[in-house]
Design brief:
Layout (H helix, E strand, L loop, with lengths): L1 E9 L5 E9 L5 E7 L5 H18 L3 E6 L4 H7 L5 H8 L3 E4 L20 H11 L4 E7 L12 H4 L4 E7 L9 E6 L2 E6 L5 H16 L4 E6 L5 H14 L6 E6 H10 L6 E4 L1 H13 L8 E5 L5 E5 L16 H14 L3 H16 L2 E2 L9 E2 L2 H10 L2
Parallel strand pairs: 3-4, 3-5, 5-14, 7-12, 10-11, 10-12, 15-16
Antiparallel strand pairs: 1-2, 6-7, 6-13, 8-9, 13-14
Helix pairs in contact: 1-10, 1-12, 6-7, 8-9, 10-11, 11-12
Bound molecules: nicotinamide-adenine-dinucleotide.
Amino acid sequence: MNVYKPGNVKHKTGKVIHRRIEIERVKKMAFKIGVIRGDGIGPEIVGEALKVLQKVSEKYSQEFEYTEILLGGASIDVHGEPLTKEALAAAKECDAVLMGSIGGDTTTSPWYKLPANLRPEAGLLAIRKGLGLFANMRPAYLYEELKDACPLKEEIIGDGFDLVVMRELTGGLYFGDRKTTEENGLLTAVDTLTYNEEEIRRIAIRGFDIAMKRRKKVTSVDKANVLDSSRLWRKVVNEVAEDYPEVELNHMLVDNCAMQLVRDPKQFDVILTENMFGDILSDEASMVTGSIGMLSSASLKEGSFGLYEPSHGSAPDIAGKNLANPIATILSAAMLLRYSLNMDEAADAVEAAVKQVLKEGYRTVDIMSEGMTQCSTTEMGDLIAARI
Ligand code: NAD
């Protein structure tokens, strides 16, 4: 079977650009997976995701080789810094990296007495930058069994929704020049929003590739009625769309998208957008699902490499108590299988196992409701692994 991956080809201008190319599916003897256990509940939830990957390995006769990588507080404790050069180099050698959350209690942990560049979160920014991860993908999926956690009305939810927000991560307003000056006695601040066509093209290709593995629909979100950067965004997205005739593309203004997410989230498959719009829309999309312990995420670059992690933090308040919900991390592992290792069938099996366990009424404490069976972190991991 052939798959489509982004690659480098010559643009009509003579420049080398990223375009969609067809490549042979490669089945490796062993995939290298970097494992960042992280801080707080990180080691507990990553342990459960590894349990699930072990089951996948057996069932699909696919070997995984694991490389342990220290990041955040765990690295500070050993090396005095949140990410060493060696740790970054080890991550670069992998086909994909699975990560728990990092960081501690920001008021009591000694890590937060260190200068800002030596704190746990500095390691997170450094690894994302060092690995060249320019796209962030956050799914928002409403499980039938957890409908009660959704703040939307029953008639809007219907039989649930399943969308992902693909957000550009390294350009736009958050990375543009900024300054505050005093002019005629008035403080004046300016932030600049810059995108070049290559930055837009590479994330658009990633978005369309993701859509090809889903329901083949992309909604590109911009503010093209006002911003030049959005008009360029729309032009380049239209160009990329020509390489994906199977994918339905529509454009939506960001203010409308914010409304549509709460009015009719079912209409979306892949929402493709720039950095700041994506920051806001991905949080909005997550909140309409209502359960923080269920939300996975991925940071991607060109090709198939990705860093996969839950959307939530390290929850120091419940760390070490076998209470944390490991499902966001297990679903992150499912995304790793699908998007980095091209093991779609295995990813489907993991997602189906999660659904099955919820259907059977098992809940960790954060999603517990009346009449359900409460289980611990390790029990939840065992239950899911057993259903693959
Ligand atoms: P948090 O997401 O860790 O916790 C918020 C609340 O949700 C807490 O009550 C926690 O117990 C609960 N919670 C979170 N995940 C859960 C899970 N899987 N199961 C059950 N309950 C869960 O946010 P916070 O308390 O603001 O941050 C704690 C630490 O995490 C801080 O150091 C912060 O910087 C860090 N953080 C890291 C990441 C990351 O690694 N990408 C992201 C966000 C926050």
